[in-house]
Amino acid sequence: MEGVQRPGRKFLRYVPGMFSLVTVPVMLVLFTWLRLAQRPHYHTMEVNWYNEAYFSRMKWFHKPPRRQYLHITLTGKEGSDNVRIAFGELYIREVYANRDTVHGVAFHFSEHSKYAAFVRVLDMANINDIRYYMASDDGIKMYYMGNERAEEPGKPLGYL
Fold it and tell me: Which of 13, 67, 103, 114 has a CA positioned 20 to 30 A from the CA of residue 157?
């Protein structure tokens, strides 16, 4: 039995199978990543709703400061609301760029305003990294808070 050798096994190579074993997982990862990248990302943000009766009991809370606000009224007409929100966005960006502690923007919502306008104003605050904003019964006020916290009486800057 010394001279008997087992015949060598032939290594099977099935090229299409090997190709699919490599490409299918790569394609699965690629398409999954692309699908997740295309999906809208929803997130939450904190909105403090100002109520004088509730917040007057808290010693650490400061009222929204008195500023010269640019008052913007949203009427519910989508075209004009979009223009007014865009103008308010430009104005509050300028306030933050100049670190202006005197001016601010006050968005007011009429009875016919859509909820989408409210969400768009909050989304604008989130996108532009507006740190100081306060929602109340009459709308949303956005402002820049410097180091001082003194409340000086302010008059409206204008109406839009």
Answer: 114
Q: Decide if 104 is inside a domain.
A: yes
* DSSP-H helix ranges across the chain: 15-38, 52-55, 78-98, 115-127
Structural domain containing residue 77:
52-159
CB atoms within 10 A of CB 88: 22
Which CATH number does the domain housing residue 78 bear? 3.30.110
Region of residue 38 (left: phi > 0; alpha: psi -120 to 50; beta: else):
alpha
Count the domains in the chain.
1
Distance of CA 138 to the CA centre of its chain: 22
Using the structure block, give the residue that is written with the tokens 């989508």. Answer: 78
- The string of pLDDT tens digits covering residues 100-149 is 888 999 999 999 999 899 999 999 988 888 888 888 778 898 988 876 44
CA–CA–CA angle 46, 151, 53 (5° rounding): 55
Please tell me the pTM assigned to this model: 0.62
